[in-house]
Amino acid sequence: MNPTPHLNHLDARLDALDASTSMGAAHGSHAPRAILWDMDGTVIDTEPYWMEAERGLIESYGASWSEEQAFQLVGNALPVTGRMIKDQTGIPLTPDEIVDILLEQVIEKLKQHVPWRPGAQELLLAAHEAGMPCALVTMSYESFARVLVDALPAGTFEVVVTGDMVSAGKPDPEAYVRAAAELGLRPDQCVAIEDSATGVRSAVAAGVPTLAVPHLVEIPQLDGLVVVPDLAAVSLDDLPRLAEQARATR
Predict the structure, then answer these.
(1) Is the peptide bond before 171 cis (omega within 30 degrees of 0)?
(2) Do 66 and 89 touch, CB atoms closer than 8 A?
């Protein structure tokens, strides 16, 4: 799963989709044609795994780590997390070494138990059964995302974009633009589901109508998104209405 060559052709692929996008708009079709899913905090709740690993690593070197500092890392690309921990604690590891240690520990926990967020597994499987294409758009690395992908029926996620596959992590829009293009769609033909400030900024900046499901951090007020309390109250049939609500705020 290494689509790096596709990055060189992203702009060309997006330009090639302009005609189909215009045709869809002319026919008045605004229902989302795919769902772009964030992972941590949206599909699964691995933030406690990350926070436990961060605290354990940092305290093993005699440094301290507060809950406030831990929440500052939510939604960030892993290289950013590594740099922030290094800068704020001064532990004798490089940012890459910090990320590698944390990733290994969290992957092991995820293999033991997949902590689904309320309603996420049900909505994801309903989309799969209905033939609605889904993409996973996460700043975790491919080795971590693979554990979730392997826990689901084959083909549940047609596209996976991870933090080690992009040149700029969230809140940059690259990951969402790329995921839509890999599905053969424009961003505005999809709907994104996110839980963090960093994530919604990325999706909205990419032009994806965004469904925000707050979890651990506050969601900013942005044009292009609609907030729902959790996915347990959202069905596949609700997505066109919610996506249209998000579009209407732009």
Answers:
(1) yes
(2) no
Report in angstroms the alpha-carbon separations of 129 from 37, 132, 149, 156: 16, 8, 16, 9
Q: Could you please state the CATH topology (level 3) that the domain comprising 47-112 is classified under.
A: DNA polymerase; domain 1 (1.10.150)
| SS3 category, 233 | helix
In this prediction the pTM is 0.80
Question: Rounded CA gap, 142 and 229, in Å?
Answer: 29
Q: Which of 116, 87, 81 is nearest to 101 (CA)?
A: 81
Left, alpha or beta for 198 (phi > 0: left; psi -120 to 50: alpha)? alpha
Query: Half-sphere exposure of residue 2, counting CA atoms within 13 Å on the CB side?
Result: 0
Place of tokens 């354990």: 56
Count other Cβ atoms within 10 Å, centred on residue 129. Answer: 11
Region of 227 on the Ramachandran plot (φ > 0 left; ψ -120 to 50 alpha; else beta): beta
Domain chopping of the chain, boundaries: 4-45+116-248, 47-112
> From CA 120, how far away is CA 140, in angstroms rounded?
18
Distances (CA, A) of 117 to 4, 135, 174: 30, 17, 25
Q: Which CATH number is associated with domain 4-45+116-248?
A: 3.40.50.1000
pLDDT along the chain (250 residues), means of 10: 42 43 42 95 91 94 92 83 95 95 94 94 96 95 93 95 94 97 97 94 97 87 92 94 92
**Cβ-contact 170, 15 below 8 angstroms:** no
